[in-house]
Write a structure and sequence with these properties.
single chain, 128 residues, mainly alpha, 70% helix, 0% strand
Amino acid sequence: MSLAFGLACVERVQHLLEEPKAVECLAVLRAFVDGKTSHAALLAACKDIAAVANGHRGSNSIDGSAHAAVSATYAVANALAGRALEAASYAAYATVYSYGGYAVNDPSSFESEFAWQVARLKELPRAR
């Protein structure tokens, strides 16, 4: 269930990913959760995304997407590693940061994303 929840959170920020390898790794996670790829492929993607996340240069954009893209990439890395709560945290941060850097200083900016995450987590056992 942690991989499925991490995937659900990351899918909400996949549009913020800027590195093609991060998108590829997300596809591996999706395929694994859907039962369409091997555990070995998951482990390889986990290793690949860690390198991508740790080496992410950010973005040349001036609209706050630099940190949003980095946070979204770390969300993928954590989701692939089975660290669902960390993936959810990075995904929420990426979502809020994409509004603009000022938004992360307002805790209420996170409320709707956290509410969605809680609702999605509650739905997962029923979806299995």
